[in-house]
Structures are given as structure tokens and as C-alpha cells.
Amino acid sequence: MEGSGVIQRYRDFLPITDATPIISLNEGSTPLIEAPNIVQALSGDFRLFVKYEGLNPTASFKDRGMTLAVSKAAEQGVRTIVCASTGNTSASAAAYAARAGMTCVVLIPKGKIAYGKMAQALIHGARTLEVRGNFDDVLELVKELGKRDDIEVVNSINQFRIQGQKTAAFEVCDALGDAPDMHFLPVGNAGNITSYWMGYNEYREAGESSKLPRMMGWQAEGAAPIVRGEVVQAPETVATAIRIGNPASWKQAVEAAEASFGAIDTVSDDEILDAQRMLARSEGIFVEPASAAGIAGIVKSHAGGDIVEGSTVVVTVTGHGLKDPEIAIDNAKAQSMVVDANFEVVLAATGL
Ligand SMILES: *Cc1c(COP(=O)(O)O)cnc(C)c1O
């Protein structure tokens, strides 16, 4: 049973053969939601659409690449997948490995993973190791493990991940009828910006769209190796999913920004948290902090006059807000009230 996941829907654009068993959780087909309230709050004159990737099966865009990476691993007869992760890759790998009946090993920098993501890795049965080190240390260990023939690494150094993730660009074009003028997204390991750029190019070459968007990537100030032009040894940001000091797809990300006349720039943790709250309050869309980096980028670009009037802008919000409930409760800057079960007391407390 192939389901209606991204491999089935975009198989002509993917490295699939009749021999590839399709391991899918019906990922993709996420909504592209117009966000007029944010545009209005910015007094902007453009159309903004939010690609809500938190609505994938494991609640982040990682599923688009994982379905292909795990399917190809199965085709090659591999029974064990391994990944280094700030959280969402491990959640996705754990789920797809469970689906495929494979063993999954995840290596996570100790203490740096959001609560919901840890829950996912554990409940899906992944062997979960917290390593005393940062993400880049962990990735090196995983690459070492991957030298064995019976183990497949499913980090975004796995080209099938990049290939699968490009399907999000296809979906955006299919929904809008063409590519947007600008595409905003957060940048961590820079696999996703690489994937979108690949997808937009392939779709245009296939005659499915007529133009290419400016690619606008956003790193957190404390984890901005691409913007600074050097490896960050101890990356630090509230947005754990983009807490990366040495991105795997660094070169490709720079190429995407340059070839598209776009940019890769930084936003601060405060700007990220403000954007998370704004998106939740004004549009009803709840995302994890890393995902809000693209929204913060829109605020910054608009303030800088970089968004042309009348243009169509898409922002990918990469993961669901429930991944990281602790930060959300903190960032809500609001508290619940404890009251007695008494109508007068409740009425007074509601402020109505
Ligand atoms: C993985 C991830 C990112 C970063 O994507 P890259 O491909 O590593 O640049 C951003 N946000 C979320 C929620 C993620 O899971």
C-alpha cells in the first residue's frame, strides 16, 4: 500500500524505481495558509502564505526526506538507520523506522533536545543516546558509524533527504499556480533551503512554473556560521532546531541565495520569540521557535524595504509548536489563573 505521500505524488521527480518499497506515513500535502493579519500588522502591501509543515505525520518537514531515505535504505536491504539530531530528524527517523520494521539509533547532543521530540524518539522505539557534545560532534560520530555497510545515515548528508524535501516547493507551486516571488525559511544545516531551491528549479525546467523565487534564509544570531563566514564552535539559540555551528549544506545554501538574488541573514532570539507569539496570536498558527525565524525574517525584511509591493511571499514554518511546550509556556507571557468553583469568582476572573 503506497498511500498518498510525497513519493507517490511526485514519483516522476524522485529517484524511485519499481524495486523501491515505499515506506510512507502519507507525509506532505500540508496546507498553504494565507496570513493577512500579519501583513496588516506590518502595514504591508504583499500577499503572505504560510506553508505549515508542522502538520506532517511527525510534526515537522523532516518527514518529506525521511520517507525517501528510509525507502531507499529498504531497497538496499539495510536494516538499521542512524542519525544525529537536534530533535526533529530523530523523531522522523524513529517513526519511519518503526513503519519499516528497522532498527533506529539516534544520537542527540545531551540536554539540548525539546521535550516533545525526545518523547517521539522514545515512544517509536529508537535507541536514543544523549552525547556529551554539541551537534557537530554528534554528526561526526554518526558519519563514523555510517562507514559500516549495514547502517544507513539518514541525516541531510543523505542526498535522498534533500530529494524528498524538494517536494514542498512543488506543493507551493501547485497551490499558488506558480512559484512565489520570495520564499522565507529558517536555516540550520541548510538542507531545506537547498531542497527548495532544487525543487523550484526542477519545476520550472519541467514547465510546471514560470519563475524562481528569491530564497531568503534565516539563522539565529548565536548560530549564524553562514552569515559570519566561519564555523561557530558553541552555537547558542532558543531555536534548538537551528542550533548548528557548521552546516552540512553550507555551500549549496550560499549558492541558492546568490543564484536567486536572495539572502541569508540573522534574527535574534527575541525577534524569533516575538514572531512565534505574533503568528500564534494573529493567525492561529503554532510553531516551534526555529520555525518562527522565517517569520522574524519577514518582519526584518519588510522593515528594511526588501519586500516589493504587490509580491507573493511564502514562508515555511518547519515544525509544530507542541514540539517544545516549555518554551511556548514561557513565551506566552501569560499565566493561567486558579479559581474556586464559584460563578461570581469565575466571572470576575474572566474580565468579561
Ligand atoms: C531541521 C529543522 C530546521 C532546519 O532545517 P535545515 O534543513 O537543517 O536547514 C528548521 N526548523 C525545524 C523545525 C527543523 O526541524
Describe the model.
- The chain is an alpha/beta fold and 352 residues long.
- 42% of the residues lie in helices and 15% in strands.
- The chain has a six-stranded mixed beta sheet with strand order 1-2-10-7-8-9, sandwiched between helices.
- Helix 4 runs parallel beside helix 5.
- The longest helix is centred in the middle third of the chain and has 15 residues.
- The radius of gyration is 20 Å and the shape is globular.
- The termini are far apart.
- The site of pyridoxal-5'-phosphate has 18 residues, from helix 9 and helix 13.
SSE layout and pairings?
Blueprint: H1 6-9, E1 32-34, H2 36-41, E2 47-52, H3 62-75, E3 80-84, H4 88-100, E4 103-109, H5 115-123, E5 127-131, H6 135-145, E6 151-153, H7 159-165, H8 167-176, E7 182-186, H9 191-205, E8 214-220, H10 225-228, H11 250-259, E9 263-267, H12 269-283, H13 289-303, E10 312-317, H14 325-331, H15 343-350
Parallel strand pairs: 2-10, 3-4, 3-6, 4-5, 7-8, 7-10, 8-9
Antiparallel strand pairs: 1-2
Helix pairs in contact: 3-4, 3-7, 4-5, 7-9, 8-9, 9-11, 12-13
Bound molecules: pyridoxal-5'-phosphate.
Residues 60, 62, 88, 156, 186-192, 241-242, 288, 290-291, 318-319 line the site of pyridoxal-5'-phosphate.
Provide a brief overview of the structure.
This protein is an alpha/beta fold and 352 residues long. The protein has helices spanning 6-9, 36-41, 62-75, 88-100, 115-123, 135-145, 159-165, 167-176, 191-205, 225-228, 250-259, 269-283, 289-303, 325-331, 343-350, and strands spanning 32-34, 47-52, 80-84, 103-109, 127-131, 151-153, 182-186, 214-220, 263-267, 312-317.
